[in-house]
Amino acid sequence: MFGYVMPNRGELKIKNWNLYQAFYCGVCRSLGKRYGQKARLLLNYDTTFLAILLAGIKSRYTLKSGRCLVKMKKQLFAHGESIDLAADINVLLAHFKSVDDWQDEKSVKGLVGKTIYGRSARLASAKHKEIAKAISEMAKGVALVESTNNQSPDVAAIPFKEMMRAMALYVMQGDPQEALVAEFCTILGKWIFIIDSLDDLEDDMKKKQYNPNKTKAEQYSVEQVFDDAHQAMILYMQDLANVFDKLVFQDEQLSAIIENVVYAGLLEKTEKVLKKRSCERCGSK
After folding, report:
1. Between the CA of residue 38 and those of 31, 32, 122, 130, 170, what are the distances in Å?
2. Mind giving me the DSSP string for 252-285?
3. Nearest-angstrom CA–CA distance, 61 and 257
4. pLDDT tens column, 240-274
5. Which of 66, 94, 97, 121 has the least CB density, counted as fewest CB within 10 Å?
């Protein structure tokens, strides 16, 4: 369910790509410092974007040079409140996914994840009880949707998008742009959930697991589902762009990165999920 929100590198200036990398590596370093080196494996693009969004609005971050243990070279790392918060949320969401994978599929990966990162999740929960509560409520909502086999992607996305909204309200509490950021995150949460369900559709059908697009795919075809979904995803991205245009950012460079994600990155990911899979099925290159 995670790892879809990232920039279109080809459309991003080199200096902005380097800054994006500094945030990505900053969240990675924060994970290691706060939860141990194994937690670095949990790093994903979505929480990096959250760090950039918050830092862009509040302009509270610093850049420091350091040595990356993975790349074995010196580079810039972003530091600040939004980076540490992104690391905490990263742990909580990754632990939820591990628990969900174990419950749904009895996967070894899910069991290992929920065992290894259980303590880290408890630590993160203690720091951010409201976020932990939002994730817990989301898990209950997802379970209800799956138990009733709801076949409306919009309805199925409600628990996840409401979790995103609750997290935004928590981190932006008292800020003049609190409502706008909450609306932005709600729409983004809906996009993430639905693009993930489309990405997983064929695998879920093979494994006979829940997917809100499955009945339609069985009645018509997977191709039809993807064709119909394409316009809907474009509309979600337009809604997101409309809210983005109302936000005021304190950091122009981070604003440019977020703009790239909203106008180019999400579109690139949508095309990759919907169009590439269509080409793979028809045998074209």
Report:
1. 9, 7, 16, 25, 27
2. HHHHHHHHHIIIIIHHHHHHIIIIIHHHHHHT--
3. 15
4. 999 999 999 999 999 999 999 999 999 999 999 99
5. 66
- For residue 215, what are its two tokens? 């009945």
Q: Name the DSSP class of 69.
A: T
* CA-to-CA separations, 273 to 196, 199, 207, 268, in angstroms, rounded: 9, 6, 19, 9
Class assignment of domain 9-282? mainly alpha
- Cα radius of gyration (the chain): 19
Spatial contact of 191 and 236, defined as CB atoms under 8 Å apart: yes
Q: What is the DSSP letter of 80?
A: S
Euclidean distance between CA atoms 132 and 140, whole angstroms:
13
Q: Which uninterrupted H or E stretch holds 171?
A: helix 158-171
From CA 21, how far away is CA 70, in angstroms rounded?
14
- Domain spans in the chain, listed from the N-terminal domain onward: 9-282
Report in angstroms the alpha-carbon separations of 252 from 19, 98, 244, 245, 249: 12, 37, 13, 13, 7
In 172-265, which ranges are continuous DSSP H helix? 178-207, 214-219, 222-244, 252-260
Give the pLDDT confidence of 207-243 residue by residue, as tens digits. Answer: 999 999 999 999 999 999 999 999 999 999 999 999 9
State whether residue 241 is helix, strand or coil. Answer: helix
Distance, C-alpha 103 to centroid of its chain: 21
71 burial type by CB count under 10 A (0-12 exposed, 13-18 middle, 19+ buried) = exposed
Q: How many CB atoms lie within 10 A of CB 58?
A: 18
Neighbours of 4 (CB within 10 A): 22
Q: Is 123 exposed, middle or buried (0-12, 13-18, 19+ CB in 10 A)?
A: middle
